[in-house]
Amino acid sequence: MGYSDVQMIDENGNRVDGRKAGDIRPIEIELGVVPVADGSASMRWGTNYVIASVYGPMEAHPRKIQRQERAVLDVRYNMAPFSTTDRFRPGFNRRSREISKVTSDALESVVLLELYPRSKIRVEIEVICAEAGTRCVGLTAASLALADAGIPMTDMVVSVASGKINGIVVCDLNKEEDNYGAADLPMGVLPNSGELVFLQMDGDLSPSEFQEAWDYNMEAALKIHVLMKEAIAKKYGGGQ
Amino acid sequence: MAQPLVPELLRTHLAELASRDQRADGRGRWEGRELSLEVGVLDRAEGSARVQMGDTIVFCGIKFQIQTPYPDRPDEGGLMTSAELRPGAGRHIEPGPPSPESIEMSRVVDRGIRESGCIDTKDLCIIPGEKVWQVIIDCFAISDDGNLFDAFGLAAIAALHNATLPGERFDIGEDRKFPVNKTPIMCSYQKVGGRFVYDSNREEEVGGDERIHITLGEGDHVHSLQKGLKGVFTASEFVEIMEAAKVRCSELRKLVDSM
């Protein structure tokens, strides 16, 4: 049986978990989950569970990494050994290195690094339980943790992915869908300006499918942004 | 681990408190921090636990793999323990390969569990000489405010009691409850300001001296001991903490067995 033969969407357009094409999985956000960190946030997104913690701004050492005019971001994405069905061997691998880099590139685009010359801000993303789309959850949780640490940013980063299963474009693939997915388009959106700071894609999408996936992501990002603002308001008070 | 800027000031402060029989956070000598234990908290692990002691938070996840048995023990399964001190768990933790501290932690936790005999390794045999289960205990620090040893030890034994052997996923019969027939408990004591205290927090760890880890099983049987860090201690000091450990270990054993 080929990938495309597995039916993941029924005749009424319902997905395996009952969602419609444009729906996202349930999301729960909590700030300040790591008491010893300067800022932290956890996100439960479907059965993904990610904890991001932020330390700094602090002295950047060794000195050769210092930048005279701005802070440097030191971002690490890591998966816990028990986060996947088959045990994940601890340690840095090529995949986590790449995700760390693109996450860092995205966050550097919003953090006001020039306010902290010669210093370093550490961002640690720990995937405790992985379902699908951990890089998106990680990036979004990291921007929440930076906000919790009180580090000035031009905007939050909301990251979400859309993809294609059975020839139908759907938003926010879960694990089963991801296994049979024919395309994946993760994006990092700045909800206030609509600009992008993170973009990857793999698979096969026609121009119209691509547009559909893009629009789903933009729509979902605004919904998730509302949840992020609620979580921040819950801890710190203030309006939406 | 990074050195604090003013260790001597902290040491003097802790010694002054100790001379009045006080601790920095107001606890008694043998008093632990507020403790919370939850099991079955991780969706992808076959058994799991979350332990919070004050501001120290850890997870432990149990995973199973199939392996070939060792030639000299063809009918026995394997046990492996790892402890990860990720840099997210504290600003004093540097990124990089496993530190000597994390290796010591995993080995001390491992010994307490292994030597207590709470896991019957023969029960993990699938086909003698060919296939056995390997149990992997992964301890993972989320927030380090001191005494990760006890947090890891407690999370590990609670997660083992919570574990299910995933027979179906590996095509080896049905899923079944992983048999764990004892509850070894580790208690750690650190010399702070010249006397031993239970469950030192990060401040006491930084300004303290040697620590002693005691793992006790049923009937106060001793299953593992470890002295860590620089410092000397007397036989009578050891007797004192051993008596304290007997009390605390049985309290914690009741908690784990009630989950």
Description:
The complex is a heterodimer of chains A (240) and B (259). With 240 residues, chain A is an alpha+beta fold. Chain A has one domain: 2-Layer Sandwich (Ribosomal Protein S5, domain 2). Helices cover 27% and strands 28% of the residues of chain A. Chain A is built from 4 helices and 10 strands, in the order E-E-E-E-H-E-H-E-E-H-E-E-E-H. In chain A, the strands form 2 sheets. Chain A has a 5-stranded mixed sheet with strand order 1-2-3-5-4. In chain A, strands 6, 7, 8, 9 and 10 form a 5-stranded antiparallel sheet that branches. In chain A, helix 1 (94-108) crosses helix 2 (134-148). In chain B, a hairpin with a 2-residue loop joins strand 2 and strand 3. Chain B has helices spanning 7-19, 100-116, 148-161, 202-206, 235-257; strands at residues 35-39, 47-53, 56-67, 78-84, 125-127, 131-143, 164-165, 176-177, 185-192, 195-198, 211-216, 222-228. The mean pLDDT of chain B is 94. Chain B has 259 residues and is α+β, with helices and mostly antiparallel strands. In chain B, strands 1, 2, 3, 4, 5 and 6 form a 6-stranded mixed sheet that branches. Chain B has a 4-stranded antiparallel sheet with strand order 10-9-11-12. Chain B has a two-stranded antiparallel ribbon with strand order 7-8. Chain B has one domain (7-257): Ribosomal Protein S5, domain 2. The longest helix of chain B has 23 residues, at 235-257. Chain A binds chain B through residues 33-38, 47, 49, 51-53, 55, 58, 76, 78, 80-87, 90-91, 122, 124-126, 128-131, and chain B through 42-45, 48, 55, 57, 59, 61-63, 65, 82, 84, 86-91, 95, 97-98, 136, 138, 140, 142-145, 169, 202.
